[in-house]
Amino acid sequence: MIEKHQQQLFSWLLEDNQRMQVLKTVETVADEFKLGDCWIAAGFVRNLIWDKLHGYDSNALNDIDVIHFSKGEDTSFDLALQSKLTLIQPYLPWSVKNQSLMHTRNGDAPYISCSHSMTFWPEIETAVAVRLLSGELQINSPFGLESLFLLNLTHNHKRPRTLFNQRCEQKEWLTIYPKLKVLS
Fold it and tell me: N or C: which terminal CB in the chain sees fewer CB atoms within 10 Å?
């Protein structure tokens, strides 16, 4: 049985033609590049939920984070993926990151999957991703969706509090989304 928050998220995604087109594009490219663990993460989902709960129009896609887990590939593979996505939809702000490489940048032990890597992201609510797989919506949310729907903004204790504070300020979440509650 699909939980109520997941069902609501899927409903909002299905109603959003632009996001569905982005999901279809990523599904096509993931198939072409044979990516099994490939998702659209972070603000693509988080902002949709916060926008809807604030009564905002959620059509602005200011950042499309495509994450994948591809052992043995380097950053040139990410650039090839990003180029392919840009070729298909050049007007969108694509960002592609291989999560199998991110542990070195973050000073962590190697990650084992996209889901595992998301458990190290600075905010609990950012650790959420969606994809189309064989035309079916799927969600990857290692911390669940409850906190997102409660309009929380929670520091992940695996990262420095200063990084969390810096991101809150830089992204202006508390100004853009005044109903958010910061949790420690």
Answer: N
H/E stretch holding 77: helix 75-88
Q: Find out whether 159 and 103 touch, Cβ atoms under 8 Å.
A: no
CB-based contact 102:73 (threshold 8 Å) = no
Distance separating alpha carbons of residues 69 and 36, to the nearest angstrom: 8
pTM for this prediction: 0.95
DSSP 131: E
Q: Where are the chain's structural domains? A: 4-183
DSSP assignment of the chain equals ---HHHHHHHHHHHH-HHHHHHHHHHHHHHHHTT-SSEEEETHHHHHHHHHHHHT--------EEEEE--TT--HHHHHHHHHHHHHHSTTS-EEEEETTTHHHHHT-SPP-SHHHHHTTSSBGGG--EEEEETTEEEEE-TT-SHHHHTTEEEB-TTS-HHHHHHHHHHHTHHHH-TT-EEE-
Q: Which residues of the chain fall below pLDDT 70?
A: 1-2, 59
Query: What are 85's two structure tokens?
Result: 């996505």
